[in-house]
Each structure stands twice: as C-alpha cells, then as structure tokens.
Amino acid sequence: MLFNSYIFIFAFLPILYALYAYVRRWPDHRIAMALLIAASLVFYAWGGWFFLQVFVMMMAVNVAVGQWLLRARSGRRPLLVFGISVNLAVLGYFKYAGFLAGNLNTVLGTNFPILHLILPIGISFYTFMNIALLVDIYRGQVKHLSVIEYCFFMSFFPHLVAGPILHHSELVPQINSAIRRPGYDDLCIGLGIFCIGLFKKIVVADGCAVYADAGYSMLQAGQALDPASAWITAIAYAFQIYYDFSGYSDMAIGLARMFGFVIPVNFFSPYRSVNIIEFWRRWHITLSRFLRDYLYIPLGGGRVGPLHQAVNLVVVMLLGGLWHGANWTFVAWGGVHGVLLSVTHLAGKTFLGRSPLLSRPLARAFGIGLTFMLVTLAWVLFRSSSLGEAGRMIGFLFPLGLSPVTVLHSFRVFLAHQFGNPLIVLDPTTWAPARELWPQPLPPDFLATARPVGLWLAIVAAGTFLLPNTVQMFERFSPALGLQGFPTTSWFSLRRLGPISAIAIALLFVIAVLHLSRISPFLYFQF
Amino acid sequence: MTNQVSSHFLRIFITGIILWVVIFTAFMAFIDPYGLWNTPKIEHINAYKPARANLDRQIKPLEVLRDQPRTIFLGTSRAQQGLDVSVLDGTEYVPAYNASIPAGTILENEVLLNHYFEIDPSIKHVVMEVFLYQMIVGPHSVKQRSVWDLTDNLMPLFFSAGTLENSFVTLLVNYQGRRDLPSIDARGHWIPPEPYIAAMPFDPSAYSDGMAEIHLKISDLQIQDSPLQALIRMRDACKKHNATFSILLAPNHPWDDYRLLSLGYWSRIEAMYRKLSDLGNVYSASQYNYFLTEPTTDQLPEGKRMKYWYDPVHFSPNLGREILKAWAGVEGDYPQNLLIKITPENVERVLKDRMTGLKNWMQENRKFVDAFEKSRRFYCTDEQSCKRLGQPKKLNPAAMQRGLLTGDVLKVDGVNFQLRGGIGGSVESVKSFDHILIVCGWAIDDRKGVRPADPATGIAVVVNNVVVDVVLAHYRRSDIETAFGTGEHFTGFRAAFQTPTDQVPRVRLFALTKERYAVPISNSTPVEGLEFTQVPFPAVLTGTPTSPLR
Asked: Using CB atoms, which residue from A406, A436, A499 is nearest to B12?
C-alpha cells in the first residue's frame, strides 16, 4: 500500500487510527501494539502475500537468533555471523542473484541462469534493521528482546517499506509512553508533518519527474539533448529524488507521530550542504549512520591513516551504492561519492580545512553550489539504466566538441523561452501538457523550450535553498529524533498549531489529493 | 493537549479540508472544462471547452449515463467528426448522442454497446458506423465493462489537478476568445479548431506517398469474420433490448476509392457490401454525388476550405447532417442517392453504380490519378513491393535530379543556396525499403535565432552531392510549435527518395531558407545497413567548415 493512495489516506489510516484511539485506553498496552502489528502486516501484504511470507520468515529467524544471542554465554560471535549471513543471503538472493549471474556469465563465459525475481518491498531496509539489531544485541546495547516488541519494531508501517532505518533502542522504549499519553497533540503534529510530506511527494517530486523522465526517455530513445535540456533533466532529477524520498520520510515521521512515536530524522536540507561530508550527514541520515556504525568504524573509521581512511570511505560508499540496486550504475555512483568524500576529508586535513575564509557567506554559497552540482552530476549515474547511458548524458551536459558560444546560445534560448515574456510564461495554454512531453521524437532543445519547466524549477530551487525544511518548521514540537547538531531556524518555524496553520496545512493536503488521481510509486521502493 | 497545539486545530483542519474541497470543486464545476456538470455555458468564460477533446473513451460513457439518450451513434473518428446529431431534434430519435470514439474497432464498440444498454435502458435506436478497415481487423481482446468501470475516471475527471488546470485553461481561452484548439460538442461530435488545418490535407502527392508506404507493410487486406460476428451480436443485443440496429457504411472519398481500385482491393469493398447486405438495416453513403465529388482543396482557390470533407478520410458535419436527415427520413437538400439501404437484392446494382461513379470521377481528376500512379511506381522496387502495390511499372531514378552540391553551394532547381550552420531541423525516423529511403522529421528556418522561428522554404535531399528531391513541410507539429514558437505553419516533413544501387550512398538533408541559405538538418539516429550521414546536434549548431557536415 502506498502512503499516496486513496485507500491508505481515506480508509486504512482513519480506520486504524480510530481503532487505535479506542484500544490505547485499555489497561494492557500490548493490545494496542498487537493492533498496530496486525495493521502493519495488512499494509505490507497489500503489495503481495509472497512479500509478507518472506518478511514474516525473516522476522522469525531474526527474533530467534536475537534471543539466542541474548541467552548465549559462549559462541556468540559465530551466532552473530550466522544471523548476519542469513540476512545478507536472503537479500543477496532476491536482489543480487541475477546481477551476479549476469556478470559471471559475461566475464567467465559461464551459463548461469539469470533469475528475474520480484524484490520484496522494503527488504533492503528491514535487512539492515535486523543486522543492526543483532549487532546491538551482540554488543550488549540491547539487553531485552520480547517477541511482540520485536514484531512491532520491525513491522511498524510508517518505516516498514522505505525507512528510516531504525534502531531497536529508538522505538521500543517509547512504546509504553506513546500508547499511554493523550494522543491529541501527537495526532495534530503528525497530521501536519504528514501533509507536508504528502505535498512534497505528490506535487513537487512528481512535478519534477515529468521533466526528468522526458529527458531520460529522449536519451534512451537515442535522441540528442542540447546542453540546456541536459541540465534541466539532471537538475529535475536531483529535485525529484530529494523531494520523493524526503517527502516519504516526512510522511513516515508524521504517521509515526500520529500514533505517538518519534522516529529519527532522515533528511535535513541536504542540498544546503557546503561540502560532500556535510551532504552525507544530511542525506538519508539513517543509512549513513548504519554504514558508519556497522561498516566504516569497524573498518577503522577515522582512526587510521589518511590513505587507509580514503580506501575505507570508497569501499563503504561502493557497498552503499550497491545497496541501492543491483547495477553497476549504483556501484559507480557510490564510488564517485566515496572518492568525493575521500578528497574532501583529505582537503580538510590541509590548510584549506583550517581557513577562516571558508566560513564566509560567499565561500559557503560557493560550497553549497559546488556540492549541489557534484551531487547532481552523480545522480546521472544513479538515474541512468547503464553506464553507457550515463556517459552519453554526461556528454550532453559537457559537450566538449561544442564551442562556448554554442553552449551559451543553448542557455540563451532556454532563458528567453522560459523567462523572456512573463505574460507567455504564466499563460497555461502555452504549457506543454505533461503527457505530451515524451516518448515521441522531440527536438534536442525541446525541454529547454517546453514551458513551464524554467518557472517550475526556479520555484522548486527557491523552496529548496531558502525555505526551512519540515522538521525545522516543526522544531518546537520535537518532531524527530537525531536533530542535535543541526541548525535551528527562528523564522518560518511554527510557534503554535493554530487556526491559520490548520487552514494552510489543509490546503496543502487538498492540493496533494488533487494530484492523487494518477498513481506514482515511490522511487525508493525499488531499493 | 498543550498550549502548543490549539484545541481547535483538528476541527479547523477538517473544516479547512472541506472548505478547500468545496472551493475547488465549485470552481471546477462552474467552469466545467469537460462539460460533465452541465453548468450553463457563458460566453468568454466557459462556452468553449477544448480540454474535452481526446477524452472520449473516459467521458462518453458518463455522458450516456447522464443524458440517457434514446438514439446512440457508435463508430470511429469518421462518425465522431461527421455526425452532428442535433439535426435529429424534433424527430422521434431524440435525445440522440454521438458516442463514437476515434479508432474504435467493432469489437470495442460492441463492448460499449452492451455497457450502454446496462446504464441506459431508454436506448431505442443504435447506429453503428462501419468502414472497410474495421472489417479487416481480426480478433483482439477488449476488456468487458461494468457499471463499476464508470468509477475509474470519476476522481481524475471531477476532482484532480489536471481538471483544475484545465479549468484555468478553459477560462483563459474563453476570456481570450480563442478557438484554435479542437473540442467536442455536448452531443458528442468533434469540432475542429479555427483555423482548421487538417492532419492529412488534400495533397495528392503526400496522400499517395503515405498510402503507398502503408501498403508496403501490408501483405494483404482480408475481410475478417470476427467483426462481422460482432455486428451480428450487436444486432441481437439490440433486438433483446427492443432497439433498432442500423449499420451506416460511411462515405468513402473518391481518393480512397481510387486507392483501393488501383491497389487491387476493390473486391474487398464488394465483399464487405455483400456480407453486410444480409444483416438488415444497412445503409451506404458512398454513392457518387455532388457531396462525394466535391472539388478537393488542391483544386480550390488558396485559403478556401472544402464544405463536406475535413480530409480524405473524414467527412464534415455538413455532409453528416444530410446523411442523418436521410437516415431519419427528414426532408433536406440532398441527392436521392445520398443514402441507400443495402439489401441482397440491390447490392450488386449499388456496387456497379459506385464503380461507374468512380470511373467517371477518374476521368475528371487526372492530377490525382497521375500522382497516385507515380507513387506506386516510385515505391515499386522489387518483386514484393511491386506485388503489394498492384504491379505498377518501375520508375527511372535518373530522371529525378534537382540540382548539385558543389563546395559550399547547394544548387536547387537553378537557385544557389549557401551552406550555413545552425538549427535546420532534425531527422527523427529513417526507414529503408530496398533502395528507397523514407525520412521523417521537422525543419525550420532558425538562422535568426529568435522566436517564433520562420518556416523553412523547402527541404533538400542530397544523395552523393546530387539533389534528388525537394519537399515541403506539410504537417503541423505541436511540439515544434511549442519549442520554437513557429505559429501555424508546417514544420513536419516526410521525404521519400531512391538511392543508387551500385554504392553505399551518402545522404544529407538541408533546410532551405528565404535568405538562400541551406542549413543542415541533424540526424543522430543510426540507420542499420546504410551510411546515412550522422550529423549529431552539436555539429549542426557549430556548422564549421571542419564539421562532419562537409
């Protein structure tokens, strides 16, 4: 079931909340927990019974291994290795078996059958949560594991299919207080955050997707893109993936809060990062945390020499890339980020890292611009279906055979067409209907000249770089865990959830629902 | 509850949702961009509804449910464009509704008819438009419809961002007094934009080339049994619901009649008539009369439009209204043979008269006949293609030289054009049939780099430095118009030319401009088995003497 579907918004959620509001008053809080577990399994099973079977099987294996680990006095390490291996084997089978077979066949000339398995929804996320739990038990950070609490921790529907990747210690200790305390404030705060997330996903991300998809469809059809159109495609995708995933994360945070739970922040305006290290502290925060705690630090982290650290970073990011999908494009994407992180770390250890100039506004603005550009270029690898396609896209973004005058001409045409005459730009009858943007053959500068892409990207960019993010807007309401260290905002943060905010949030909700008439799956479901 | 969250928040939030829903819905219902709310049409606000076009499959079932017509017309774009049922007002057939859908097969219309009987018990008359191409479509799957299928499109049509945007667009185009987009009348027939430029104009060469190309891909046309069976089932369904069932064999333009005759398919028309003549109420509107033989656009003064035809395959409501009058028995200014009921007894005579009419028309329209025969000969390059085109004689390619490319100068029909870089256009598809290349794309004159761009005066096709053809852009491309602001002139072109058999040809295309420049048309589409010169977009932009253009 998708958060952005009529069935979820108008049936599943209100019915579940009504039942929850009723049973949470009962003395035994396990009934409320059981209700949430049952509802979460229904939510998950909506995608297919087979997915539910795999999920329940993995829960059974992990809770057994976890309890065994808790009780065992010796042989804990082999048990941990066994548990982790089972998790990785199941993930590997569903996600990487076909990829591995295909590559082996190519390299060794073997003839392994290439399996085209349907990837169980959210398997990458719940596999990491299970591994983290087993390691935490092994390290003594989790001392008690009840079956019902474990089932609730794993299956709680807000985080089930696309994160955030939670720790047992973040959710389970809240159970009693979340169910017991009066739910009105939580419901209102959660609704507010959910509606903003819904708007970000359905209106902003899907609005950007039209242009990103058009550009990549042209690329896949073997058509040419002029420089401006290529940059529009790349930037539209950068915004699409950000608003898609951060919108989903906001919805998850809001939904959890409606039921009284506070879960970790997953995005904190990553495109406002001044360098790539900061970007990874703000982008998919719970994945970065997992990779740091369970991969990077065990490999030596920052305690080793600079070169060793750089290698570790590249290895971690390569694996992080592979986690996103079984394709060399994801590996390359991770590798690029690994190299960028290494270079930034190395640069930070030179005089550059100590220079006071870096904290000046102009330098910060330059850093933000550069980081956004690098991240956007790396997304080309992430979005392309093959390395060859990514190479062609890079070729269109940086047409080396083209004179600077010609490149400038391309952007001049873009600016003239998108912003030249406000009366035409704002006239919806001059806008290219989304459905007509692709897949038919289009001229190379079509995207650069198809209104209102310029206006749209300008609005989205302004919102991204100038407006506070969702958790900053709700910072007075303790919206999420893990906000320490992030900047707060004094303006645009809600002081009180009153009538004006209620009307404004209702408007965002209604606009989002207006856009619901076509189903668009979340990008991150595929990872 | 804390003082951070107002005790009224939830109540105001829910009230706010209701309020916004009411505001948006009221606006969409007032503007009514698809005509579903039946709100009053107010000039300069919502009278003209261009957003309604192209939504027939979604909207027509809802309109049948809403309007509960007594007479329903089914069919394809021919009936959709040509049958204005308002002419039946005052007869026993009202309320009547044109439920035809573009490219609707007979099987799809059968499913729709059953659906309409389910949602509209008042249907008493059903008219199904049929033409040859529906009868050659074999069995295919069509999803059965139920009442619940009507709910599929309720949200997108009544409460969606698309409908909201279309409401704004409707308001704006009405305010501006524009009529430059097609729309659909409340009774279901298509209304062309003004000015109307047909997608398939009456251009003898373009029509002939296009048809020849289509027929190269078709091994044979055969009347299928499944459409006939579907028509029989439709007739039986009507009988079951106490409704009359008529089949309307919509008028065929003489160009199309000649095509079938020339390519050897006349017998298919005859077979169709004979098979259908057994079904009962079958009416033919393809008899030769002054409607059918109206002089075509290419014979009329420039700018003058035909009255009875939109294009060679779509008749206009001026003809459709007369057909409907004849069908309903209403008096009108139409020839006696406009509509003839086909029976087993008269079918041979009707066919004979039609052949006689066609032959007479051929005598008077040599220009078209010659153009069509030229196309047949042009595309006849080997045994198979000649067979598919009815075995015409082959054409001599040497007779087609139009000029030469020498250095930086392209000489076309004695006029010199200087080669220059810039955006000339783009080749988007290249098809080869043995030694014929068919190239489609778009071309403009963008030398000034301003918007709107000018039209190209022609497109020169150069094979091995020889200009083998010069074609004109002959159809509109809304995407190019959007991109280059080209207004209402043609930018889409299609060029077909023969290539030498003794060597691998080098093919280049140039957009010709008013200022006598020849600007290369880019091509980044690889063509298998052929050295069709690859001119990537960046190279086109630079167009320097060292570029691959040279």
From this structure: A499
Q: Is the peptide bond before A439 cis (omega within 30 degrees of 0)?
A: yes
Binary contact (B479, A505; C-beta < 8 A): no
Interchain proximity A446–B539, CB inside 8 Å: no
For the segment A280-287, the average pLDDT, to the nearest whole number, is 94
Cα(A404)–Cα(A402) distance, integer angstroms: 6
Size of interface A-B (CB pairs under 8 A): 161
For chain B, say whether A432 makes contact (Cβ under 8 Å): yes
B451 close to A (CB below 8 A): yes
| pLDDT band per the 50, 70, 90 thresholds, residue A286 | very high
| DSSP output for B81-126 | HH--GGGGTTSTT-SEEE---TT--HHHHHHHHHHHHHH-TT--EE
- Contact residues, chain A, for B19 at CB < 8 Å: 503, 506
Which residue among A187, A428, A510 sits closest to B172, beta carbon to beta carbon? A428
Closest CA to A154 of A30, A60, A79: A60
Instruction: Give the list of residues 6+ apart from residue A137 with CB closer than 8 angstroms, or none.
Output: A66, A69, A70, A145
| Tokens found for residue A497 | 């959830």
**CB–CB of B479 and A432 under 8 A?**
yes
Return the amino acid letter for A142.
V
Residue pLDDT, tens place only, B235-264: 999 999 999 999 999 999 999 999 999 998
Burial of B329 (0-12, 13-18, 19+ CB in 10 A): exposed
For residue B417, the distance in angstroms to the closest alpha carbon of chain A comes to: 23
Q: Do A517 and B162 touch (CB under 8 A)?
A: yes
Specify the DSSP element, H or E, that contains B519. strand B517-520
Q: Which residues of B touch A446 (CB under 8 A)?
A: 479, 482-483
Query: Is A370 within 8 Å of A337 (Cβ atoms)?
Result: no
Give the residue-averaged pLDDT of A231-257.
Answer: 95
Question: Average of pLDDT values for A373-389?
Answer: 94
C-alpha dihedral over A515, A517, A523, A526, to 10 degrees? 160
Any long-range contacts for A373-376 (C-beta under 8 Å, 24+ apart)?
Answer: A374/A276, A374/A340, A375/A238, A375/A270, A375/A271, A375/A276, A375/A279, A376/A234, A376/A235, A376/A237, A376/A238
Q: Which residues pair with B411 in a beta bridge?
A: B404, B416
CA–chain centroid gap for A96, Å, is 20
- Mean pLDDT across the stretch B478-499? 73
Q: What is the pLDDT of residue A524?
A: 44
Determine the Cα–Cα distance for residues A347 and A351; give it in Å rounded to an integer: 8
How far apart CA A211 and CA B297 sit, in angstroms, is 40
Residue B482, CA distances (Å) to A106, A446, B119, B167 in order: 45, 8, 41, 21
User: Given CB atoms, is B154 within the 8 Å cutoff of chain A?
Assistant: no
Question: Could you confirm whether A168 is annotated as catalytic?
Answer: no
pLDDT digits (tens, 9 = 90+) for A394-429: 999 998 877 787 788 888 888 888 888 888 888 877
Strongest mean pLDDT among A171-185, A498-512, B457-471: A498-512
B237 shares contact with chain A (CB less than 8 Å): no
pTM given for the model: 0.80
Answer yes or no: do B20 and A496 touch at CB < 8 A.
no
Average pLDDT over chain B, rounded to whole?
86
Q: Do the Cβ atoms of B20 and A446 come within 8 Å?
A: no
Task: Give the whole-angstrom CA distance, residue B227 versus residue B73.
Answer: 17
For residue A70, give the nearest of A133, A156, A148 by alpha carbon: A133
**A118-136 confidence digits (pLDDT tens):** 888 889 999 999 999 999 9
User: Is B178 within 8 Å of A442 when comparing Cβ atoms?
Assistant: no
Structure tokens at A274: 């001044």
% of chain A exceeding 90 in pLDDT: 60
The answer to whether A187 faces chain B, any CB pair under 8 Å, is yes
Higher pLDDT, A263 or B477: A263
